[in-house]
Every structure is written in C-alpha cells, then in structure tokens.
Amino acid sequence: MLNNRFISFEGIDGSGKTTQIKLLQERLLSLDEKVAVLREPGGTLISEKIREILLDNKNINLSNESECLLFFASRSQLVAEKVISLLNKRIFVICDRFNDSTIAYQGYGFDMDVKKLEAISEFATFNMHPSLTFYLDICSEKSFERRGKVNSDRIESKGHQYLEKVRQGFLSISKKHSDRIIKIDASLTKQEISESIWLTVKEKYDF
Ligand code: T5A
Questions:
Q1: CB count in 10 Å sphere of residue 10
Q2: pLDDT tens figures, 19-40
Q3: Ligand 1 atom 7, closest CA
Q4: What is the pLDDT of residues 177-203, one digit of tens each?
Q5: How far is the CA of 11 from the centre of ligand 1 (A)?
Q6: In whole angstroms, what is the distance from residue 124 CA to residue 80 CA?
Q7: 192/55 Cα distance (integer angstroms)
Q8: Cβ neighbours, 10 Å, residue 41
Q9: Angle between the 64-78 and 45-55 helix axes, to the nearest 10 degrees?
Q10: DSSP for 82-137, written as a single string
Q11: What is the 14 CA–ligand 1 centroid distance (Å)?
C-alpha cells in the first residue's frame, strides 16, 4: 500500500511536533530505516515561496479563502514533487502537518465549510492520506507559554481565542478519524510522549 509508511504530526503551535518528529526519526534511523522529514507549509522550492507569503506579517490583506487555497497549493506541490516518489521507494515520510492542519486552522478556525475543504484536500493531495497521525494535544495557554518571546508569524499572531478554536477543530477531527489519528496528551514530558509514540510505531510496523 503506497501510503503505509506515511506518518503525520498535528497539533497547535508549540505542541511539540518538531521535537517528537526528531526523536522518532532518530529511532527509525537507528533501525537502518530510511526517513524523510517534510515540513508544512514548505518542503519544496515552490512550497517554501508559498510559505513566505503565508507567514509574512505584512500580508494583512490576505483573504481567508486565499490563505486556505495557498496552504493546499503548497501541499499539492509537496505531494507531487516529493511524497509520492519517496513512498514509492519505501522511505518513511514524516510530515510536520498535513491536511488536518488546514481543516483545523482554516476550516474550524474561520468557520468555513469543512466538507468543502475536505473535498479540495482530496483533489490537492491526489487522495493521499497518512496511514498514521499523531495529534499532540495542548491548550492554547501552554502553547503561548512554550513559544515564549519568539516573534510570532502571521498565523501565530491570531491570538488565544483563535488557537483554542483550532484546538477544538483538531479534537473533532481526531474523533472523526480515530482509525488513523492517535491523540496524545502533549503536556507530558518529551520522553513520555516519545515512548508512547514509539510503542504505536513499533506495533504498527512490526519492529
Ligand atoms: N498552518 C499550517 C495553518 O494555518 N494551516 C495549515 O494548513 C498549515 C500546514 C506554521 C504555521 O502555519 C499554520 C500553523 C502554524 O501557525 P510553523 O513555524 O511551521 O508555522 O509552526 P509550527 O508547526 O506550529 O511549529 P512550532 O515550532 O511552533 O511548534 P512545534 O513544532 O509543535 O513545537 P516544538 O517541538 O518546536 O516545541 C516548541 C517548544 O516547546 C518545547 C520545545 O523544546 C520548544 O522550546 N517542548 C516542550 N516543553 C515541555 N514539554 C514538552 N513535552 C515539550 N515538547 C516541546
């Protein structure tokens, strides 16, 4: 199955995705598995250019609809250029965010028609889905606390209320796709979270 080695990490800003992806990558590499880590938005030359537009604080006039379609465009390019060929080579692909992020941040966050966005996401990503998703759940207060004084990008600047709405979106998505999404309490220690992720991966891939 093409998408079997396709894993994504989801969660609001500062939930610990990058930290856990690095730890999982190290474990897989230590077993001589090939691993590619891709970030969203970004991961290809064109997608990184789209990322600049999306995160630039100067783009105050970007409409919600344009924002949404730019996230899909960036992802579509990433899947077409990289994800499909890596998976065909049986390389583990770990994505720092995928379609669930757009459904949560733009769909639930902006009260958009989630069903419509799901249909666009199928088109944009050639019906590709991760076979396993770790959703790292933290509250918006913890997110702001962890990110500390780091300068916020355009999306991060949207504040507590928006982020809490996005979190509720992620919780709904996790319930709806409980066959694929593992919800993890991201307020635990880095080590505890990493062990829990590894237990799931070990079992799924028979390591
Ligand atoms: N976006 C993205 C959308 O709106 N729609 C979309 O479709 C997509 C794809 C991307 C922005 O774009 C938005 C979401 C984002 O706002 P980004 O810079 O890529 O911007 O932002 P994030 O993906 O959110 O990356 P962050 O670095 O902010 O968060 P991470 O990766 O979840 O967190 P991480 O691992 O960097 O950790 C943050 C801090 O917490 C500590 C770490 O050491 C670090 O200091 N930490 C912990 N501390 C205590 N306990 C733990 N368990 C910890 N785990 C990590």
A1: 26
A2: 999 999 999 999 999 999 999 9
A3: 102
A4: 999 999 999 999 999 999 999 999 999
A5: 8
A6: 9
A7: 31
A8: 25
A9: 160
A10: IIHHHHHTT-EEEEES-HHHHIIIIIITTT--HHHHHHHHHHHTTT---SEEEEEE
A11: 4
